[in-house]
Amino acid sequence: MRKKREEPVDAVELRRQAELKLSERKKKVAPPPAVDNDSRQLVQELEVHQIELEMQNEELRRVQEELERSRAKYFDLYDLAPVGYLTLSAKGLILEANLTAANLLGIEKDQLVKKAVTHFIAREDQDIYYLHRQKLLETRAPQVCEMRMTGKDGIPFWVQLDANLVPDAASGALLCRVGMSDITARKQAEEELRRAKASVEEANTELQRMFAREQNLARTDALTGVNNRRYWLELAEHEFEVAARYHHPLSVIMFDIDHFKLVNDRFGHVVGDQMLGRVAQVARAALRSADVIGRYGGEESVIALPVTTEPQAYPVAERIRAGVAAIRVPTSEGDAAATLSIGIAEMLLPPPAEHLDGYDSVEHVIERADEAMYAAKRAGGNRTATWSALAERPGGCD
Question: Which of 52, 54, 202, 299 is catalytic?
Fold first, then answer.
């Protein structure tokens, strides 16, 4: 239980208590020899005064002990607090600092007094402090900010400043009370976490890039850079389903390099591979973004043209044929050249009221384009043939 604080006594009460104590003392000792009345009164006054002095000394001792206890408590609560405390003037000068603040800055307490707090703020974070102080003065509300400070050793460390304004008890001027918490460990942990997150994101991006690359390799013909046969068939099936669902036309162009074996035999397979790549480039340049090209096998390539009839596909095929005929690949044996045989077939759509299942398929359209391509080859090559023209001949196209 907290001891009740003793209040100081006034002069009248002090004399009363002194006379009471004197009376109690006289009861314990033999009576003094007889003296006259005036002498006895003088002795009485001296004895009371002595007791008053004793009581006053006791009171002073008690007050001194209480001050020492308060000073020790203040030292524990203020100087040894886990947070640094600063009192700043209106001009930002340090008026008071506790031991924790002094230890953080590596400077003796008395050496901090009258120094500008900005002297200890890292140059890069000076603006943070000035904005923090300006907002504090404008709003008169407590403000919090994070910044780097530097001590005597010049090594920066992170702190959180919690500041508020209070009036000075003596002058009434506004003072700034600042709590200064060392958050370096937290900032380092946050930075490590940020780096770890960035590293994970970078690794994830690299994995996604590698996955996309693998997917692209799995879908792309390495020699020509166009879709390989398997992936082209997947795309063509999708386009076929869309065309059938919405009753849109779809055409397929198939082409083959004429006498490609002679190119390989005369100029070598390296030149032959170059020729395949150049042919693919020419074909891609003649297409729309919606058109789908792929290497079907060997020297054969195939193109699906959505929302395109056979007559509309014909000029596209002719542009490809003319472009390839103009290719020249320089070699030590002379320029290598090539021509194409091209076949075109259009998807057969049923009347809108009829069911679509089993009516036509991608494979059937490819077969018809292949028949038209071989008809172009039989006619001498370097030409474009359409399956509808073959079917209109006497005897049809079996």
Answer: 299
- Encoded tokens for 335: 């320029």
d(CA 55, CA 29): 21
What's the token pair of residue 146?
């994070």
Q: Percent of the chain, pLDDT > 90?
A: 65
The whole-angstrom separation of Cα 38 and Cα 51 is 20
What are the structure tokens assigned to 262, written together?
């002679």
pTM: 0.56
Please state, in angstroms and rounded to a whole number, the distance separating the CA atoms of residues 225 and 390: 32
Q: Which CATH class is domain 84-182?
A: alpha beta
167 - beta bridge partners? 174
Domains in the chain: boundaries = 11-72, 84-182, 229-391
In the annotation, is 299 catalytic? yes
Backbone angles phi, psi at 190, to 5 degrees: -65, -40
Tokens of 249: 């036309």
What is the mean pLDDT of the segment spanning 164-187? 90
CATH code linked to domain 229-391: 3.30.70.270
